[in-house]
Write a structure and sequence with these properties.
By secondary structure, this protein is an alpha+beta fold. The protein is built from four helices and seven strands; from the N terminus they run H-E-E-H-H-E-E-E-E-E-H. The protein has a seven-stranded antiparallel sheet with strand order 2-1-7-6-5-4-3, with helices on both faces. The longest helix is centred in the C-terminal third of the chain and has 25 residues, at 128-152. The chain starts with 8 loop residues before the first helix and ends with a helix.
């Protein structure tokens, strides 16, 4: 499904809006590992500020062990890498936590969907497990929505 990155921005924005309506996350973006990098994001969140460099570091297949040592930066926010299974067949997720006081840090999940990646930041107080499960659920919905959109073309 390499064509996923060719879906228009409105479809991706609709997917983000739908995910945010679940109430479990406060910010979301859909990125890819080649231009235009950021396909869609929540305009009232921070992920719209993701840089090309941040996305390239996050999605690089080589040197991933550095992410555990150096952490990850998303839209200028430092994050701790909890688990990296982004390129593990059948899992394809990465779990992060924003740095800060434990009461103010937030869970972050990144989920690979073919050639695009869904980045979600949980509401304060949302643990990584439920956020990860919701991301998997939404990924299934997104794949179905994309298939339906392509079928109508």
């Amino acid at each position: 499904m390499q064509y996923m990155r060719d879906i228009n921005k409105e479809v991706w924005q609709d997917c983000i809006t739908l995910f945010l309506q679940t109430g479990i996350c406060c910010d979301a973006a859909i990125v890819t590992n080649s231009p235009p990098w950021l396909l869609a994001s929540y305009p009232e969140g921070n992920l719209f500020q993701l840089t090309q460099e941040e996305i390239q570091i996050l999605l690089a297949r080589e040197g991933r062990e550095k992410l555990f040592l150096q952490g990850v930066t998303l839209a200028g926010t430092k994050c701790l890498l909890i688990r990296d299974n982004l390129y593990t067949e059948g899992n394809n997720t990465m779990d992060l936590r924003t740095k800060g006081q434990s009461w103010s840090s937030q869970a972050v999940t990144i989920l690979q969907m073919e050639s695009v990646y869904f980045v979600v930041i949980g509401q304060k107080g949302t643990e990584g497990g439920p956020l990860n499960l919701k991301a998997f659920e939404m990924a299934g919905y997104i794949k179905e929505a994309v298939h339906q959109h392509v079928a109508r073309l």
